Structure formats: C-alpha cells, structure tokens
Amino acid sequence: MEEKNIILIMKKYLPYIDDAVLGKIAQEISALKEKTAEPDYIHFYNSLTIIEKKALKILLELLNYKEGTISISKLIEETQISRAVITNLIVKIQRDKVMEVISKGVKGTYFKIVAEELKEPIY
Q: What is the pTM of this model?
C-alpha cells in the first residue's frame, strides 16, 4: 500500500522516470523504513491480555531486565501459564520488535530487550 503511494507521488513529480525504476525505488524506501522502525511498545503492551502481561513480567524478571537464554518449558513452569499463551506472547514480542527472539533449539530461546520501556520493572 505504501509503495503504491510512493509511486504515485513520484510519478506526478517525475513523469519522465520509467515505472520499473519507480517501483524499485519505492521498494527500497519501504525496506529502509521497515529497517529503521522503532519498537512499538505502546501498541505491544496494549495488545497483551492480562495473562500475557503476567507472563511478560515473569519473563523479564528471569532475564533480570537484560538479555539471556530461557527455556520456554521453564517459563511455563514458573508462570503456570499454558504454552499457547506463551507462544502468543512471543509472537507479539516479535511482531512489535520490542525484543529480539532467537530459538536455540534444545538450548532454549535467546531474548534481547530492544524497547527501553522493558528494561525496568513493570508493575
């Protein structure tokens, strides 16, 4: 959608440039914008259910509000929350880019906090 808007604006002001070139420029601009997008903490936190917020708080406490590798099974055991809820939390974390999440297989899952708001206790 955004690429289409970029193309239309560029076509209006630069009518002599080929459509294929305009398309490539629009793709590059969109990709650049995506790379530099800030983590959307407010949208992330508002999208969490009460149970997901509880799980997030325990996850952050296990990480000491920094970064580290945690076993999802350990997180489930600590929180007494279902795997489905934890999975939804991780999907939302990745979607809103508030943490980097890298699965290390049997060694656990690596979490690195990106959003500054998560680097201090949540009440």
A: 0.67
